[in-house]
Amino acid sequence: MADEGLRPIIIKRIKKSGGGHHGGAWKIAYADFVTAMMAFFLLMWLLGSTTKGDLQGIADFFSTPLKVAMAGGSGSGDSSSVIKGGGKDMTRIDGQQKKGEDLTPAKNFNLKAAEAELERQEVNRLKALKERIEKAIDTIPGLQQFKNQLLIDITTEGLRIQIVDEKNRPMFALARAELQSYTKVILHEIAKILNDIPNRISLSGHTDATPYSSGEKSYSNWELSSDRANASRRELIAGGMAENKVLRVVGLSSAVLFDSSDPLNPINRRISIIVLNKKAEDSITQENKKVDVSDKESAQEAVETAVNAQQVKPAPVAPAAPVAPVAR
């Protein structure tokens, strides 16, 4: 009994762990992951809902160095910065220089100067064509005798070749669109020359002011001038000129007189062949093009063009009493 009182008492203490087998570090990692994902989706949402201009502003903000933002200039080595120069070449003090920069001076193109040069070259080409036609008239036997009926000059539209009537040598039959035999010879020779140049042509027929007895109600000088212009076009093509070179064929009756002082002068009966320059050709091909008046300058230019067109006065036409058809 005495031994039982001396028996030692053993106390077992069990240490409890709060994290179990893996501990609690995974919770922190998971929280960081969730936070990163929330930040990522928030960034995606912001990028999707921000306008293009705002995005560019944000990009410029992050791409601009603090030095440039505070000191100004296009880069940290710009001449407007506090420390001039920069880049690989430390000897350069005006602006910055990057590696591989092309030091060749940039070429500046003056559009107006280029257009003026093209126009000058075109005028010289038309002058050379004029000399060529004049030389052909002097050397070709079939044209020498018609020298007085061929008038050649340069206008704002291009090179103009006018075949006019003489009192005793009309180009067409009386009041008809039938060409005389010598008129065909003239047009055939001209066709050979016109086919060698790239410019397109415009044909216009003209009559004198002698009216038809029926007046303007039926067949008149308008129809006659148009028919004669078309007859000349067909004869030029028969002489070898390409069909696609003709851009415009018009009949002007006696609206544009050669001799305005004498509306009945036979010289007013003529065919005009104009070798068009680039500007005149564009004005014809783009005459149906819509004018953009969305801005103030375009609207003002359109109004000025219309006003200038209204101020052009036609050549005076002397009134004449209706008479029977005569040579036109």
CATH architecture of the domain at 116-286: 2-Layer Sandwich
Q: Mean pLDDT, rounded to whole units?
A: 76
The total beta strand count reads 5
CATH domain class name of the domain at 116-286: Alpha Beta
Beta-strand content: 5-15%
User: What is the CATH third-level topology name of the domain at 116-286?
Assistant: 60s Ribosomal Protein L30, Chain: A
Order of helices and strands: HHHHHEEHEHEEHH
- How much helix, percentage-wise, in residues? 25-40%
**C-alpha Rg, in Å?**
44 Å
Q: Count of helices?
A: 9
Largest sheet: 5 strands, mixed
Class by alpha and beta content:
alpha+beta
Q: Any low-confidence stretches, pLDDT <50, length ≥5? A: 312-324
Q: Which strand order spans the largest sheet, edge to edge or round the barrel?
A: 1-2-5-3-4
Question: What is the straight-line distance between the termini?
Answer: 167 Å
Quick description:
With 328 residues, this protein is of the alpha+beta class. The chain has 9 helices and 5 strands; from the N terminus they run H-H-H-H-H-E-E-H-E-H-E-E-H-H.
Overview of this structure, please?
This protein has a domain at 116-286: OmpA-like domain (60s Ribosomal Protein L30, Chain: A). The protein has helices at 25-49, 52-63, 66-71, 111-139, 141-144, 181-194, 221-238, 278-285, 296-310, and strands at residues 150-154, 158-164, 201-206, 246-251, 270-276. Helix 6 (181-194) crosses helix 7. It is 40% helix and 9% strand. The chain is rod-shaped. The protein is of the alpha+beta class. The chain is built from 9 helices and 5 strands; from the N terminus they run αααααββαβαββαα.
